[in-house]
Predict the 3D structure of the following.
Amino acid sequence: MTTDRDHRVAVLVLDGAKALDVGIAAHVFAKRPSIPYEVRVCAEHAGTVDGWNGLAYAVSHDLNTLTWADTILVPGYRNPADVATPPAIVDALRAALERGVRIAAISTGAFTLAAAGLLDGRRATTHWHYTHVLRDQYPQVDVDEHVLFVDAGDVLTSAGAASGLDLCLHLIRRDHGVALANHVARRLVSAPYRSGGQAQYVPRSIPEPLGDVFAASRAWAVDHLAADLSLAALARQANVSGRTFSRRFAADTGITPMQWALRARIDRARELLERTDLSMTQIADATGLRSDANLRRHFGSIVGTSPTAYRTAFKE
């Protein structure tokens, strides 16, 4: 949700931090004229922090940066099962959560949140390779290995590096709406429609050309949201049977074609609410939801608020 100042993001780098995780967190929120965020990279102590595979980070800020931040992001790091989180970091993260700071982890950064007790009694995830380790070491955490990320309100966790990007885009949606998140996704050449409920690890038994066809079908659907997006219509676009399309779409994405289509329509409705003065009836027609009642019902079930309240919160 928009504020009078830029949202402040602290990226907390730990020993062994993975470069892609750090880069995603720092790059997505990097200050630009169109991006209302300010990001600072910090560590337990300012100076050089050893990374992974011979990399190192020259970090200018220490843990005091966490008192400046509105959001703290903890990138993943190597050997999380064997690495103890420094007590100063545990104390700083606990204090930040008590102040109302939002805290998120990319990949194995979830182990640091768990060590600080921030995931106790919460649903959380991490990279699929380490979900069983997280569950064994922290049995008080409700570990879900089947999702890209988990939004537990003030504490969020994600799977591998690519889902860390999904998590960051999700945070932008929460703060500023779909339009800005889609703008950032286009700048990063990233897919804007990967919900947290999708499977994080999908066995690739599907022939690649068929996967390309399904990607083309999804792209067609996004450009034709007001059209018939029934299973039969989508299957015709992919030139396969409805049964084949449904089975392989779910295997490829972790969700059903109809779930995906509905979320794409609601995302488009969110963008229209943010950036236009169209009436609810016009938005329902433009997104293929057909009626105000359908718009309100599906919008409420997915977004958790009404279209009118959403427009009031996010309208430019």
DSSP finds 13 helices and ten strands in the chain. Residues 118 and 278 are 42 Å apart (CA to CA). The two ends are 11 Å apart (CA to CA).
